[in-house]
């Protein structure tokens, strides 16, 4: 049984606040992300920002069935790490790429979830291309969101673009409904067929968070910490994430703030 929550005006206000704050945590961290910083330092900065906001991390202590408690205030996934990388004491070096994924919980209990890619110093053309194309793929998915559209439309837009550029789509992890819980129904797959799947209804809030690989789509667990996921062929992987609201006329991207990166040129508005 699917139990998608539809947010009323109060819920939408709660989600707006949570999502803006989640984006502002990334804004706070951004100027510090350069060669030499460790992902543990990024985690500390994120935690510090959450304290000043009066939010708490949704990830620290997070323990779905079969997992150990997640030990970070955020996730840091470097190079061939696909997702759920755990902050550690290894300095980032020139040419690395890192995804920082932040989910906060507000005092009212609402969750906001988002992630961005960062290039550490000068990166390879291939790494920059992977990140830029993954960002575009996320936005192409977002642009499918409107009442009457189906989840398969989102997945298809992302998959067609990614595979058309020679990238592969990770299948095992997906976007998700979000509200007063971290992971709600529905699952938002980043591949699919147009016109299939759950129909979108105003008041739904969910994430779109494609993970695209330079090589094959296959993944595996690093197998040491119970969390870290890597590409099986050790090729680079990138991810971007926004939380979106289905509005009566289209979509509203909730995880935006002053420091959000510029929109791709084909995106006319963050609210439709
Ligand atoms: N923020 C991730 C997502 O986008 C989930 C991270 S769960 C953690 O769904 F435990 F690894 F932090
Ligand atoms: Co996330
Ligand atoms: Co998410």
UniProtKB/TrEMBL annotation:
Q: Please name the CDD domains in this protein's record.
A: MetAP1 (cd01086)
Q: Which GO terms describe its cellular component?
A: cytosol
Q: Which GO terms describe its biological process?
A: proteolysis
Query: Which PANTHER family does the annotation name?
Result: METHIONINE AMINOPEPTIDASE
Gene encoding it? map
Record text on subunit structure and interactions: Monomer.
The record lists a divalent metal cation 2 as bound by 113, 176, 209, 241
Positions binding substrate in this chain are: 84, 183
Q: What is catalyzed by this enzyme? A: Release of N-terminal amino acids, preferentially methionine, from peptides and arylamides
| Entry note: cofactor | Binds 2 divalent metal cations per subunit. Has a high-affinity and a low affinity metal-binding site. The true nature of the physiological cofactor is under debate. The enzyme is active with cobalt, zinc, manganese or divalent iron ions. Most likely, methionine aminopeptidases function as mononuclear Fe(2+)-metalloproteases under physiological conditions, and the catalytically relevant metal-binding site has been assigned to the histidine-containing high-affinity site.
Give the residues the record marks as binding a divalent metal cation 1.
Answer: 101, 113, 241
Q: Which parts form a coiled-coil structure per UniProt? A: none
Keyword annotations from UniProtKB, A to Z: Aminopeptidase, Hydrolase, Metal-binding, Protease
Against InterPro entries, the record matches this protein to: Creatinase/aminopeptidase-like (IPR036005), Pept_M24 (IPR000994), Pept_M24_MAP (IPR001714), Pept_M24A_MAP1 (IPR002467)
Molecular function in Gene Ontology: initiator methionyl aminopeptidase activity; metal ion binding; metalloaminopeptidase activity
Q: Which protein are we looking at?
A: Methionine aminopeptidase
């Amino acid at each position: 049984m699917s139990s998608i929550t539809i947010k009323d005006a109060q819920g939408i206000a709660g989600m707006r606040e949570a999502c803006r704050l989640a984006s502002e945590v990334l804004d706070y961290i951004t100027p510090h992300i350069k060669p030499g910083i460790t992902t543990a330092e990024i985690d500390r900065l994120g935690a510090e920002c959450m304290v000043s906001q009066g939010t708490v991390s949704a990830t620290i202590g997070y323990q779905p069935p079969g997992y150990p408690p997640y030990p970070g205030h955020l996730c840091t996934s470097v190079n061939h790490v696909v997702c759920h990388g755990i902050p550690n004491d290894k300095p980032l070096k020139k040419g690395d790429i890192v995804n920082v994924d932040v989910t906060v919980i507000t005092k009212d209990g609402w969750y906001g979830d988002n992630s961005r890619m960062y290039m550490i110093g000068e990166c390879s053309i291939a790494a920059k291309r992977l990140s830029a194309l993954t960002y575009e793929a996320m936005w192409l998915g977002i642009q499918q969101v409107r009442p009457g559209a189906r989840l398969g439309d989102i997945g298809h837009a992302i998959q067609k673009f990614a595979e058309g550029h020679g990238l592969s789509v990770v299948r095992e992890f997906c976007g998700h409904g979000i509200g007063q819980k971290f992971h709600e129904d529905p699952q938002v797959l980043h591949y699919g067929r147009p016109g299939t799947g759950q129909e979108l209804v105003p008041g739904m809030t969910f994430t779109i968070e494609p993970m695209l690989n330079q090589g094959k789509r296959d993944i595996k667990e690093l197998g040491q910490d119970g969390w870290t996921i890597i590409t099986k062929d050790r090729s680079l992987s990138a991810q971007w994430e926004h939380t979106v609201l289905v509005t009566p006329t289209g979509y509203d991207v909730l995880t935006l703030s002053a420091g959000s990166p510029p929109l791709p040129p084909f995106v006319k508005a963050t609210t439709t």
